[in-house]
Amino acid sequence: MFTTTGSRGLYKAPLSKGLLLVLNGLTVMLTLLPQYQELFVYNLQAVTLHHQVWRLLCGRLVCLDVKDSFCSSLLIYNFRIFERRFGSRKFASFLLGTWCLSALMDFLLAQAFQNLFDYEVEELPSGLLAPVFSLFVPFYLSIPRMPVTQVLGHIHITNKSLVYVVGLQLLTSSPFMWLLALSGLISGGLYHSDFLRLQKILFVPSWVSRAGRFILEPLFSSSQPTNETPLGMGATLDIQRQQRMDILDQQYVVKQSDRSGLLQWTRLFPSLRHRGQNRPPMQPHPQAHTHQSTQQPLLDNSPVAEEQVARLVEMGFSRTDALEALRASNNDINMATNFLLQH
Predict the structure, then answer these.
(1) 312 and which of 75, 109, 158, 322 could share a cystine (Cβ 3.0–4.6 Å)?
(2) Calpha distance 340→71 (Å, rounded)
């Protein structure tokens, strides 16, 4: 489960959605038509010796390995928070800048590897891999680290752990994937730090952004999500919040194994929260004259720290959702973050 990208799927992330649909569609097409895969092989020798520059474009966009395509798609879906935060144009400029920088970095690293170990790198894994690895730079620097739970009492699990696990899986999928990963991380660091004013040199022009907004955005934009359970159907807002928190508990807390088992998993994976630990006692509420529930709203009037609201807004959530989540979680920033990520 990814816990840093916010809820609402691909809403306000048309570029990420377009990359997922188009690139994965091409991967499936090439899997069904293997006779055309040779055109998309990332062959360094063909570029340098035979001047097939077009291989830089074809070989560095479409994955030929389904596993690489799956892992990179998971990472692109996770990193869509940057498109929401900075906008599609800046997100596209980052991908364009790191794509160009990593293309040069691939050849430099391959040449350095040949000089050090006397081994010539002929081919590299195909796909939009180096720019995906470059996104780990702003992910590491700008996404806050929220503790989730502990395994065996010593191994800390955070909201960023699974993202690194998927990146490690992608890193170990091919022998020379480490070269693309190193190239992407170097390129991402250079572009993110605006080294030599790279952000002023490698960017998406405004006219291209306007053209994409009118032509491509209607094709890949996602509609704004709505609440699953409307109000006025016998369920008040406080009941909906409680139901959502119950679902969140069911997803996070590992169930206890069968009584005949040797391991008690609840001891290895402690509960993520203790319901009602910090909640003030409920006050009696007069019975309503309708058939609706008379349960008191959950802390609707409790104060919420603006600093916590600001941190959630920086992660891509709306202010309204952040306030609701903090009130529903009794002002617990970690639980509020996990609550928003799941709904």
Answers:
(1) 322
(2) 24
Q: Which of 8, 220, 191, 2 is nearest to 94 (CA)?
A: 191
Rounded distance between C-alpha atoms, residue 56 and residue 70, angstroms: 21
pLDDT tens-digit series, residues 266-320 = 333 343 333 333 444 444 444 444 444 434 444 445 567 788 888 888 777 888 8
Q: How far is CA 200 from CA 97, 122, 268, in A?
A: 10, 33, 50
Please tell me the distance from the alpha carbon of residue 55 to that of residue 211, in angstroms, as a whole number: 26
What is the per-residue pLDDT for 8?
61
The gap from C-alpha 316 to its chain's centroid, in whole angstroms, comes to 11
Q: What is the spatial distance between Cα 339 and Cα 317, in angstroms, rounded to a whole number?
A: 11
More confident residue, 274 or 205: 205
* 202 contacts 101 by C-beta, under 8 angstroms: yes
Q: Whole-model pTM?
A: 0.70
Report domain 304-342's class.
Answer: mainly alpha
Q: Is the confidence at residue 251, as pLDDT, over 70?
A: no
Q: Nearest CA to 202 among 134, 142, 141?
A: 134
Residues 136-159 have a mean pLDDT of 86
Which are the contacts of 282, defined by CB distance < 8 A and separation ≥ 6?
296
Strand 155-158 to strand 147-151: parallel, antiparallel, or no bridges (unpaired)?
antiparallel
Domain ranges of the chain: 14-220, 304-342
* Domain range 14-220, its CATH number among 3.40.50, 1.20.120, 3.90.105, 1.20.1540: 1.20.1540
What does residue 96 show for φ and ψ, rounded to 5 degrees? Answer: -65, -45
